[in-house]
Predict the structure.
Amino acid sequence: MGHSHALSGALVWLAAAPGLAALVPVAEHATVPAELLAGALVCAGAAMLPDLDHPKSTIAQTFGPVTWVLSRAVNGIAGGHRQATHSLLFCAAAGVGTHLLAQWHTVARDVVVVLMIGLALRALAVGVPGRTLTSAMLNVLLTTALVVIFHSFGVGYGWLGLAVAIGSLAHVVGDCLTERGCPVLWPIKARWLLPYKIGFKTGKWFEQRFLAPALSVGIVVLLYLRLMPDVTIG
């Protein structure tokens, strides 16, 4: 579900940005075009974070050996796949931790931004099939280019912690829609399934033929609604 998770993260951010900008001081610039696009990419990447607990997941292949080793470590700490990282506690910790890192040092903030955007690009199939190292190098180059572009437009990332928390939450909610559910209230191990006791199988027709296309259309529509007024005025 890598691409579906990333698309859901971007969609949720685009939908929530105006409300966040109006209600949350750190997100006051979230609807500025460059900030909006950066936020959508960061949130898309953050929507991959919970799967760091799976060494064979898309996220584990993003930056080659670096993310694979990190994924192995998280898998051991979290207790396996769909355990601690698929919970509200993880979403909150990821968001707060990111915010504190961003406040601590701009280098730490930029590392998080690069990781999130890299994860988003990888989930959206930016890479060379069957070439893990080549894909990782390409990902690094494209991610670096995007970060430089966003920097040139003065993107401030005050909303970074929010984007990471919301993206992680979008992943958890998405996995709750599948047949295995998630331990949302971990360390309580009971799994939540939405709708109750119903769930679709990942990688099957529902995800491939309906969910992913629907998310893509939603993103295009929201981008049009959010960006067109600015383009017209200019």
